[in-house]
Amino acid sequence: xxxxxxxxxxxxxxxxxxxxxxxxxxxxxxxxxxxxxxxxxxxxxxxxxxxxxxxxxxxxxxxxxxxxxxxxxxxxxxxxxxxxxxxxxxxxxxxxxxxxxxxxxxxxxxxxxxxxxxxxxxxxxxxxxxxxxxxxxxxxxxxxxxxxxxxxxxxxxxxxxxxxxxxxxxxxxxxxxxxxxxxxxxxxxxxxxxxxxxxxxxxxxxxxxxxxxxx
Length: 215
Hints:
mainly alpha, 2 domains, 11 helices, TetR family transcriptional regulator, HTH_TetR, DNA binding, DNA-binding, Homeodomain-like_sf
């Protein structure tokens, strides 16, 4: 069989078709065969050449959607915002990306897979954390966040709290317990002089929690 001259196009096609089906039918109801049947001429072999499973597709979609609509890059160009305002806006933009939110909620069950969990933690450490660190440094420099001795530690803690500790798939809990963690995080940050979580962000997070935790 001849090699595919354009593997990137094949991967893009698989991701586009999968996203459409996941949003229309739901992740659990969509099978690999469903995806292949909508690939217009591509075979199951072509699918498995690029992805080992449907889980890998969903994982790749989450990363792709982040880079396609990176909220940190958007706020960096807004010169009228100070560092704290940029942090808040980046968080709000991430919640306003409906496709990314839906894929994120679908991905919760994947975190029970040790390999995917490890990749998730690594991606937050090497992708998300540097973006937050840059904005925290800017906020400290312009005075919108109180002067702090340990900006790197603050950035790391914030990433850990929001992506790991507030993730019920990693630290199982009831809805009331998760809300308690959220308000604790808000108070903790405010006591550190970092008032990031405002009422609008709380509303966004609560809306997501309603879909994540049913108890």
